Amino acid sequence: MALVFRAAMQSVGLSLSLLGWVLAIITTYLPHWKNLNLDLNEMENWTMGLWKTCVIQEEVGRQCKDFDSFLALPAELRISRILMFLSNALGFLGLLVSGLGLDCLRIGQRQQDLKRRLLILGGILLWTSGVTALIPVSWVAHITVQEFWDETIPEIVPRWEFGEALFLGWFAGFSLLLGGCLLHCAACSASAPGVSGCYAVAEMQPQCPYLENGTVDPQV
Fold first, then answer.
1. For a tag on the chain, would you pick the N or C end, based on fewer CB atoms within 10 A?
2. How far apart are CA 126 and CA 118, in angstroms?
């Protein structure tokens, strides 16, 4: 029963981590970190991401323009690019290391201690990837709220609001966090007795001939 629970925890943790990693990659390139709806022209909507801004018009459709300069971007967008790239890289390494430490992988079955360490390291990498994804998303959301309620800006000036990418990034970050924690807990739980059981059987086999002869001492 413990083995089944351990395997299920590893599977759920790895699945959540994989889902969070894919969503984090989508969040990185999705141009919907901020949305702007114009009251004067309801047929025109603006969106902003880490790489470009887009305008959606009912007659023309979507038109996007990449940012010309990295240094000209606001600080939150510059740092968010770096942190999201770091999150994607850490997530990939975490998934790779965790996959090598799974109990269902037949490679290295006699090195359970090494597999346990790989699973712990993978869980830490995935947990760090989730934190690294949550920081830029929450930072951009905080700046958006500050600018939205800034009293120095005239009321007639349109305000940026939360985009879909922020909610997707939050979900991705929490999925990576939860997946990493589950993998770490699975690694810290009792190790599978499969390998130790094999050694126990191997040690008992030499005693079988003596038991068949009815003697206890092998020298008799």
1. N
2. 12
Closest CA to 52 of 24, 75, 37, 73: 73
Contact yes or no for 9/142 (Cβ under 8 A): no
Integer Cα distance of 198 and 165 in angstroms: 51
Q: Look up the pTM and report it.
A: 0.80
pLDDT for 163-220, tens place per residue? 999 999 999 999 999 999 999 888 887 454 444 333 333 333 444 444 344 444 444 3
Chain centre to alpha carbon of residue 54? 28
Task: Count the Cβ atoms, other than its own, within 10 Å of residue 60.
Answer: 10
Q: To the nearest 10°, the Cα dihedral for 72, 76, 82, 88?
A: -140
Give the residue among 163, 128, 121 at the shortest CA–CA distance from 21.
128
- The CA–CA distances, whole Å, from 102 to 11, 91, 174, 184 equal 9, 16, 22, 11
The DSSP letter of residue 54 is E
Beta carbons within 8 Å of 24's beta carbon, 6+ residues apart: 84, 87, 88, 91, 129, 133, 169, 172, 173, 176
Q: Give SS3 for 23.
A: helix
| Rounded Cα distance, 18 and 192, in Å | 24
